[in-house]
């Protein structure tokens, strides 16, 4: 039976039409579907969306809007408190149902729970759906019935559970209401940078939107996945998917990505696609942690770190942010972040270690910079990963594992290809000194056109000394009274 009352479909960080369970169920309900995206004062994550991701959001909403138009539908844009916006829409459209896909950030969940009850009390059918993660954070439990704290058993539980639910296709058509409610204009939201327009490098690199996400997945499966396990550590090699910003705004679901790794030709080694799945599962694990420890972005998981003597090192923080530390692998990585809004995983670990351990700056300052500058900024993965590097997190790298920025560079960028790409001022240095220009003899520097302290900075710290200082600070807190993991 055809229903005539509309369903409101509330888009959040799930900006796609395929494998969108809330949307497909809204269409299946019969009657018109009114899609709305609400720019909330808090973006449902841990704070307002960062500048880089706002750029992405603009283009993603624009792509989604066009995709809906090809199905005879529309995207309505509204700004403000979600409950008020939805109340107004219900009133304007006579909608009797409200659908969304679940989100798992603490701020978002605090909004959604009461909101669901509110509209149910008002007589609406309110339904929420999964699909943003491979598995709901409450589904997987240790044999003791508690949340996981360690990744490997979490992965084993995921793996033992078999493949996630197969993705569903986008609806072919979406019924429109007789009269559309008003929409705000995307340009009025001023999500794009203007003065100055720093997004030139983003435009070169990315195609936000569902079609762009699937193109990238296809390209990665055919060109990057073979050799992923080894190659994913080498930033100059094309062995990472760069799907993270598409995943962060839900232009593609993790189930779609997982299923794209099933039934591949025998030339793709199991070690490569299984390792890729394991990385996807790190994202689920990060959400699992955030769900069960909502303070993850703010508080040390391990309370012992509350006493860590962080430094108020504004000069160091600024040099790190600008890619002017004097350590080429760190600086090239920070400039990749600035130019493209993305940083390779190996380099995220190196730069985070440098900030925390060489400069002794609180991991929360690094997390905040990444949240503002990454197009893939994600409240769970960002916080969990910073705590992982700091050693304060669940299943974290031990604090004493301090990356040496010279040997890391030499190991993972042996020819200096990556460094030369982002630091053209060092491009003419021979491989021997590309990761340590400060050790190059004067005539080598002159020949390469490098003047340390002028064309490229001197190191802002001596890594060996900084390492010792960090280790003794760690010994102090290890000997201190506080210990252990928060419950
Ligand atoms: C300090 C630090 C901060 C980070 N901040 C973020 C962040 O804000 N947003 C974010 O998405 N990732 C973050 N990561 C995790 C990881 O670096 C990125 O997910 C990855 O580099 C994205 O590139 P890719 O899509 O090419 O990865 P691929 O190697 O192609 O991996 C595929 C997907 O798996 C997931 N994934 C891979 N590695 C991890 C990981 N270690 N943790 C969680 N998920 C993972 C991502 O969704 C990724 O897109 C951070 C890591 C560190 C060390």
TrEMBL record:
<dbReference type="InterPro" id="IPR006050">
    <property type="entry name" value="DNA_photolyase_N"/>
</dbReference>
<keyword id="KW-0285">Flavoprotein</keyword>
<keyword id="KW-0274">FAD</keyword>
<dbReference type="InterPro" id="IPR036134">
    <property type="entry name" value="Crypto/Photolyase_FAD-like_sf"/>
</dbReference>
<dbReference type="Pfam" id="PF00875">
    <property type="entry name" value="DNA_photolyase"/>
</dbReference>
<feature type="domain" description="Photolyase/cryptochrome alpha/beta">
    <location>
        <begin position="5"/>
        <end position="134"/>
    </location>
</feature>
<dbReference type="InterPro" id="IPR018394">
    <property type="entry name" value="DNA_photolyase_1_CS_C"/>
</dbReference>
<dbReference type="InterPro" id="IPR002081">
    <property type="entry name" value="Cryptochrome/DNA_photolyase_1"/>
</dbReference>
<comment type="similarity">
    <text>Belongs to the DNA photolyase family.</text>
</comment>
<dbReference type="InterPro" id="IPR005101">
    <property type="entry name" value="Cryptochr/Photolyase_FAD-bd"/>
</dbReference>
<protein>
    <submittedName>
        <fullName>Deoxyribodipyrimidine photo-lyase</fullName>
        <ecNumber>4.1.99.3</ecNumber>
    </submittedName>
</protein>
<dbReference type="Pfam" id="PF03441">
    <property type="entry name" value="FAD_binding_7"/>
</dbReference>
<keyword id="KW-0456">Lyase</keyword>
<dbReference type="InterPro" id="IPR036155">
    <property type="entry name" value="Crypto/Photolyase_N_sf"/>
</dbReference>
<dbReference type="GO" id="GO:0003904">
    <property type="term" value="F:deoxyribodipyrimidine photo-lyase activity"/>
</dbReference>
<dbReference type="InterPro" id="IPR014729">
    <property type="entry name" value="Rossmann-like_a/b/a_fold"/>
</dbReference>
<keyword id="KW-0157">Chromophore</keyword>
């Amino acid at each position: 039976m055809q229903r005539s009352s509309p369903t409101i479909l509330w888009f959040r960080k799930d900006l796609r039409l395929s494998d969108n369970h809330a949307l497909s169920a809204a269409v299946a309900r019969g009657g018109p579907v009114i899609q709305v995206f609400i720019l909330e004062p808090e973006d449902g994550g841990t704070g307002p969306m960062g500048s880089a991701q706002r750029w992405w959001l603009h283009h993603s909403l624009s792509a989604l809007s066009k995709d809906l138009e090809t199905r005879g539908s529309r995207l309505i844009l509204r700004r403000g408190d979600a409950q008020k916006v939805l109340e107004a829409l219900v009133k304007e459209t006579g909608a009797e149902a409200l659908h969304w896909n679940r989100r798992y950030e603490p701020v978002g969940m605090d909004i959604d729970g009461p909101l669901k009850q509110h509209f149910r009390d008002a007589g609406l059918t309110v339904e929420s759906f999964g699909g943003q993660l491979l598995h709901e954070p409450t589904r997987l439990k240790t044999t003791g019935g508690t949340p996981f704290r360690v990744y490997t058993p979490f992965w084993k539980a995921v793996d033992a559970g078999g493949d996630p639910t197969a993705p569903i296709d986008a609806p072919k058509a979406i019924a429109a209401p007789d009269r559309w409610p008003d929409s705000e204009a995307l340009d009025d939201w001023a999500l794009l940078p203007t003065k100055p327009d720093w997004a030139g490098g983003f435009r070169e690199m990315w195609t936000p939107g569902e079609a762009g996400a699937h193109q990238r997945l296809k390209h990665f499966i055919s060109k990057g996945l073979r050799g992923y396990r080894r190659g994913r550590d080498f930033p100059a090699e094309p062995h990472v998917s760069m799907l993270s910003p598409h995943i962060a705004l839900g232009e593609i679901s993790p189930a779609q990505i997982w299923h794209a790794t099933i039934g591949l030709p025998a030339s793709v080694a199991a070690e490569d696609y299984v390792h890729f799945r394991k990385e996807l599962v790190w994202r689920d694990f990060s959400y699992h942690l955030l769900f069960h420890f909502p303070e993850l972005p703010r508080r040390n998981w391990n309370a012992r770190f509350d006493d860590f003597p962080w430094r108020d090192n504004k000069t160091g923080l600024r040099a790190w942010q600008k890619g002017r530390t004097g350590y080429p692998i760190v600086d090239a990585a920070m400039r990749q972040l600035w130019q493209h809004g993305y940083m390779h995983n190996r380099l995220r670990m190196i730069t985070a270690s440098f900030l925390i351990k060489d400069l002794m700056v609180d991991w929360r300052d690094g997390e905040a910079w990444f949240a503002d500058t990454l197009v893939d900024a994600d409240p769970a993965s960002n916080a969990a990963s910073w705590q992982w590097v700091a050693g304060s997190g669940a299943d974290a790298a031990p604090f004493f594992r301090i990356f040496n920025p010279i040997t890391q560079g030499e190991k993972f960028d042996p020819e200096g290809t990556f460094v030369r790409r982002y630091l053209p001022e060092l491009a003419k240095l021979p491989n021997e000194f590309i990761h340590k220009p400060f050790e190059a003899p004067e005539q080598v520097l002159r020949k390469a056109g490098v003047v340390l302290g002028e064309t490229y900075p001197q190191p802002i710290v001596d890594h060996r000394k900084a390492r010792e200082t960090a280790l003794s600070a760690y010994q102090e807190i290890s000997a201190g009274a506080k210990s252990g993991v928060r419950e």
